[in-house]
Amino acid sequence: MKVLTANRLIDGEAVWYSADGWRETLEGAEIAADKDGEARLEAIGAAAFAADQVLDVAIIDVALIDGAIVPTRLRERIRAAGPTNRNDLGKQARPHAVQAA
Amino acid sequence: MYRYDEFDRDFVSARVAEFADQVDRRLAGQITEDQFRPLRLMNGVYLQLHAYMLRVAIPYGTLNARQMRMLAHIARTYDKGYGHFTTRQNIQYNWPALSDMPAILADLASVEMHAIQTSGNCIRNVTADHFAGAAADEVADPRPYAEILRQWSSVHPEFSYLPRKFKIAVTGADRDRAAIQVHDIGLHLKKDGAGRLGFAVYVGGGQGRTPIIAKKIRDFLPEEHLLSYTTAIMRVYNLHGRRDNKYKARIKILVHETGTDEFARQVEAEWSSLKDGQLTLPAADIRAIEAYFAPPPLVARPEGDEALMLARLDSRSFSEWLDQNVVTHRNPDYAAVTISLKGIGDAPGDATDEQMDGVADLAERYAFDEIRVSHEQNLILPHVARADLEAVYDELVRIGLATANANLITDIIACPGLDYCALANARSIPVAQEISKRFAALDRQRDIGELKLKISGCINACGHHHVGHIGILGVEKKGAELYQITLGGSGDENTSIGEIIGRGFGPEEITDAIETIVETYLALRNAPTERFIDAYRRLGPQPFKEALYVGEVRAA
Fold first, then answer.
1. Do B144 and B153 touch, CB atoms closer than 8 A?
2. Most buried one in A21, A87, B138, B356, CB count within 10 A?
């Protein structure tokens, strides 16, 4: 399973693609379960990059654990949560976000 | 310290205006990321995991209170209330918006600061001994030469597109506190038999994936030839340095592959056409730059000895701080103070906006308006009257910066690692924090003595692990963090590269492994005065391997 992520051009904020567009949290991101889904997300990412909305576009591996989307790599879990040494920074500082590690 | 002249001011202002326009055009979609990326990098703007990162240059680590207050203001206004002081004597902000960069750079320019050449394949911020101008063992202040190099290298048209980045460090004392032998060019300022100032020139040192100790290619270069000789080195590198492979593009690889003697011959040949030409520094110009770095008016303050004696009796913690964080000054009434940014359990090198303001206040009141950033990620007040040390300490306690651990095991260098950095493979900060907590007891730290522990979260070695007495390198193995330990590295006048001791350790094992190494050292040192690095050089890796890999060493 994969989701589409990037950083927003204007402020660098880490964002994930959802049915409602780019969101600032991983929660609710659109999941690609097969090659067709991945190709669709890749096309959306490429278009958003070309439209100067985002940069550093990537499709990342995730798993669904107890209904929550959890990135496979620690790097992406940290992007989705914030620095592990300070839980007052990054997404984890917002309500309803989980810590990376 | 150096003050901008009209040219400097106009140049930096023009650059701010130029970059502001580039940011506007990028946000308006008029230029692509591929076009913009090299432009933002030339202005210190990176993209990291969570946000953009801005790296601000602090030339040779010297700044005044007004500048430090501006760094605090930027942290407070545009970032999240803190900044990270780096191993290159700079500061990084981890959360600024691209749209705020023009305002940040304009604020910096208002206090004679900028972010130019803090990235890209150019000559980066020239670093220097953080005790420059204060150290009792100094031949001369290295900063005037660092400033001359800064002026010469700023947007130097010939050296703005080098094969790779280029780092120069200068020290003015035999005891090397600037790690010059792990720089692309290391300059050791000294005097010859006739009392003339000049440099021993080292070339081709560096860390990263291929750590190499610099080679001395000249024992004494008279000061007036600094720019012509440096130009000769740069030209040989620019011509022959490899551009086909990023990992082999640093000058250390060129020197290594060419051979030191042949490389030196090429430099001398190039220099022969430059020597005594227009790059020769007129003595009057050197002295004029030197005047900017004239020592402050250090009036006699002989009351310090008695004041300190009494204060020591009053407070054990002050006494410990005095022993650990205060060093001798060239003037016996004064001292240089290390302000540790390594509070127990804190992220190494981080300071809050309030702490930066607090240090600025201290510098103004007690330290002739001078602050330094050390490559070990601490702050320095280089000139404090011994009579004022207790007042400085009390204020440091108030702002949470009175940790008495300079040069001890908890004075850890750590890169931002995977918590922030897009290049990292493993986290550095939490490892530093856990080790710091494990060794928190000051009596134990002081019993262990001087121990340089340095952590990098990837092979690029921003955390200087190769020259740590104990080095830790984080790698990613099978999707998990793994920490390799190197022992025996050193970044001083006896530079050595640490040796990998054996298989790596998981995040939950690494602190125990460090403790095992330390306990092994304590059991085997021949006297409490034998430092870890000296004991390691005497003993070699074997006893440490046996302690770390019980039952595995013989089997292997």
1. no
2. B356
